[in-house]
UniProtKB/TrEMBL annotation:
<dbReference type="InterPro" id="IPR049166">
    <property type="entry name" value="GH39_cat"/>
</dbReference>
<keyword id="KW-0378">Hydrolase</keyword>
<keyword id="KW-0326">Glycosidase</keyword>
<dbReference type="InterPro" id="IPR051923">
    <property type="entry name" value="Glycosyl_Hydrolase_39"/>
</dbReference>
<comment type="similarity">
    <text>Belongs to the glycosyl hydrolase 39 family.</text>
</comment>
<keyword id="KW-0732">Signal</keyword>
<dbReference type="GO" id="GO:0004553">
    <property type="term" value="F:hydrolase activity, hydrolyzing O-glycosyl compounds"/>
</dbReference>
<feature type="signal peptide">
    <location>
        <begin position="1"/>
        <end position="25"/>
    </location>
</feature>
<dbReference type="InterPro" id="IPR017853">
    <property type="entry name" value="GH"/>
</dbReference>
<dbReference type="GO" id="GO:0005975">
    <property type="term" value="P:carbohydrate metabolic process"/>
</dbReference>
<feature type="domain" description="Glycosyl hydrolases family 39 N-terminal catalytic">
    <location>
        <begin position="37"/>
        <end position="534"/>
    </location>
</feature>
<protein>
    <submittedName>
        <fullName>Beta-xylosidase</fullName>
    </submittedName>
</protein>
<dbReference type="Pfam" id="PF01229">
    <property type="entry name" value="Glyco_hydro_39"/>
</dbReference>
<dbReference type="InterPro" id="IPR000514">
    <property type="entry name" value="Glyco_hydro_39"/>
</dbReference>
<feature type="active site" description="Proton donor">
    <location>
        <position position="211"/>
    </location>
</feature>
Amino acid sequence: MNIKIFPFSLLQGLLLTPLAFNATAQGTPVSAPAALTVDLAKPTKPMQPLWAYFGYDEPNYTYMTDGPKLLSELAALCPVPVYVRAHNLLTTGDGTAALKWGSTNMYTEDKKGRPVYDWTIADRIFDTYVSRGMKPIAQFSFMPEALSTHPAPYRHHWAPGRPYDEIYTGWAYPPNDYNKWGELAYQWVKHCVARYGEAEVKTWRWELWNEPNIGYWQGTPEEYNKLYDYTEAAVHRALPAAMLGGPETTGPRWNKAADYLRGFLQHCVSGTNYVTGKTGTRLDYISFHAKGAPKVVDGHVRMNMGVQLEDVAEGFKIVASFPTLRQLPIILGENDPEGCAACGVQTNPENAYRNGTMYSSYTAASYARLYELADQYQVNLEGAVSWSFEFENQPWFAGFRDLATHGVDKPVLNVFRMLGMMSGQRVPVVNPTALTLPDIFGQAQTQRADVGGLATVAPGGRSATVLVWNYHNDDLPAAPADVALTLQGITAQQALLQHYRIDQEHSNSYAAWLAMSSPQQVSAVQRRTLEQAGQLALLTSPSWISTRNGQAVLHFALPRQGVSLLRLSW
């Protein structure tokens, strides 16, 4: 058992001499405890479910072998709706899936150049979402072959290890007729309203394109702004209450990317509308991307959360500079440790973090900092999309940025399960040794462990959750952290504790697969074992803890790259 629980009367003296309890259950000495204090009587702001957003390039995976199972699991993460963002929803093709490719064949033209609309595949995708209570972030992308100014070559056949620029084919170009593009957007929204109902579609998010500041858009920024104006006019003609956003640029910390985001926002505020000729264009929410930058150093993976959070900070700073826009919702359209979900570990060894618990602890630590950044810049952060789903017909644990492999959940998915248990109001976590945002920007996570927490108290004040992580940029073994968690404001003499854990022994299908000698041919018995190992697990059986004057202290060892969720009710 790795957790010790004492009433405050006993621990009051022990915390003055923390080295008295500085050994783990394995007997390995560790440093003085990380002392975290949470006062549940002092809630601050609502716990916005930023984590309830996911995305992927390959929309046809949605309804293939393992996609529906994973979507059902994502839909069950938390009581609020989960949003799903996918590329290639307008791409021409027969629906065959491949890495960084997909198609719906929504738009073609007859021999006379007249539009032919076919909603069959798109409906199959959206039916899968809506039937689970999920909400699409419906993306107007990419350019149908019949509308592209440079249609050939159109279908790419990219594979990991190949130059990334190979994917930018005919679908990435502006339309040869902006009126036809606008009519396509109008007809699609109109069709969705007819199929799913206006009340449902009003709850969706619509967006234009993906990362137009890099190769995904082979037009100019001005042509993107023009495309947005035509899309906006069409969407709101079909459904005035629709929520449409953009520009989904990536890397705001880059000067050119910052200029692109700033230029788009300026166009929406004071530019000349390409459709109406008037000043400005309606914008319902703002979206941009944030990415980290792992690398291999001396034979091990070293992450770089700092640059990802710098992207977030720079994007927030740009939004906050527009007085009329700063309170619009912001969705981080992709919020990830690096930029290529379909690049596995075989071709990109820096992505070896993805299968095990390093991805889990990174996710916990980085998502927690999003709240801090939104508070700092006083912006309205609505969600942050984890660009991770699943990849069909690939080797087991191939190191793609995914949440499951062959229908078996990976450790990172259990962080989202933990986050899904957190609701109500945020509560400050006082932690004298916590890394600050400037520390992280300065790569302090490479010098010392980032042991921190995020806490909430539920409505009514009768339950609370505390997420605690032990993260480090370097994927190297280290002694566990000793955590002393002081909980204040418990309005009962006893509280029921449930302690969930992700580490090498808990909630970890990858460790279970390695213990099987990494089979690529998995038997039915092995699959059941892996599926069970992939579920979120309790560290110990639920137990009652005593409090004194509304306070208790939990003392536990947290392994490097481990994550704990402590759930209390009284």
